Each structure stands twice: as C-alpha cells, then as structure tokens.
Amino acid sequence: DVKVTQSSRYLVKRTGEKVFLECVQDMDHENMFWYRQDPGLGLRLIYFSYDVKMKEKGDIPEGYSVSREKKERFSLILESASTNQTSMYLCASSLTGQGAYEQYFGPGTRLTVT
Amino acid sequence: KNEVEQSPQNLTAQEGEFITINCSYSVGISALHWLQQHPGGGIVSLFMLSSGKKKHGRLIATINIQEKHSSLHITASHPRDSAVYICAVVPWSGNTPLVFGKGTRLSVIA
Fold it and tell me: Which of A63, A60, A2, A10 is CA-nearest to residue A33?
C-alpha cells in the first residue's frame, strides 16, 4: 500500500518561529511536491523537486524554502512564520514524467500561526 | 491566471440524483486528472484520462480534447459522495507540474 506521510496533522506556531514540515514517501518516487490549500483558492504549488538535491519554485515560493537530501524525504521550511502562512499544507509524490502519473497525497498539515 | 475553471463551485443534491461537474481549460494538455478530497484533507486520485471516457463504479469521467472540456458524472449519488472534486491538467509545455482547478464542493443530502 503506497503511502505519503506528513510529520504533523495539526501545528500551532508563533509569528517569527522557524517551522519545519516533513514529508516522507515509501514508493521510491522521483517527484515530490508541496502545496498549500486555502478556501476559495484551491491548491497552489509552493515548491517541487524532481530528484535528490533538486528543487524548483512553484507559483508561491515567497516565504518558504525546501530541502531534499534523501529521495524519500522532502521538507518545507518557513524561515520566519507569519499569520498569512496559516493554511493547510499538502505534500505529494509521483513517478517521473509529472502529471503522466498519479500523484499520491499525504494527509495534510493544518498550520496555524498566531 | 485561471487556466482551469470548474463549475459549479458548490453543488447540493438529493440522494439518488445524477450529478455532473464540469472542467474547462485554456492550455494544451496531455492528460487530465480528477481528484476527490473528503472532509479532513486526504486527496485521492479518481481518474487520469487523455481521451474518451473512463468509468469506475458509479463515477464516469469524459474528456473532449478539441473542446478543452471534461466532465465528471456521479450516478445514483449517495451522501458518502460528499466531497470536494478537483480537476487538474497536465500542460503540454514541457516539464511542468499539474495545474489545478479550485474545486467543486458537493453535498449529497439523504
């Protein structure tokens, strides 16, 4: 059974804190993605990675960075959390070839920044 | 940029009704995905299609590449079908990620 796991389901952080969101997949997928989902805006791509140590900016990378040191793990970092980063964060992975293959999503992390 | 448009945004139906959700897109694509998200967050893939029609149980997805339009149909709807349905396209433009619609929130009432 394929699986994408995220480190937390719910997270509450204070403004200015550094926040790490971890995503792990057990399917040996090359591609990994970080999205945020907000009411009325749908899924928006923050960063993605095609391979270890590779990263590409998505549509809304400002205020975020990522790290992919191992194939199975893709981390999203909020260097200094702000209230406008309160959102649902979803990680996904897929085989190479992008949308030619199904994307598998993690359960999501609901982050609240106070 | 709204490259993928879904309609309606919200839909309430009585149990047993036939439901249609539409997706229109403005870019050339190689494939289109339909995804389902239940309350609580988890997103699962329902279909990936590049032409014609696919069926899985009570769900049917169709696509017309020339008209840049896809539909997701649910026959004999049930309250457990209540979810957000998301359309996503695979652009032709090289190595680019999926482009998502904003989703259609479906509520099926018993």
Answer: A60
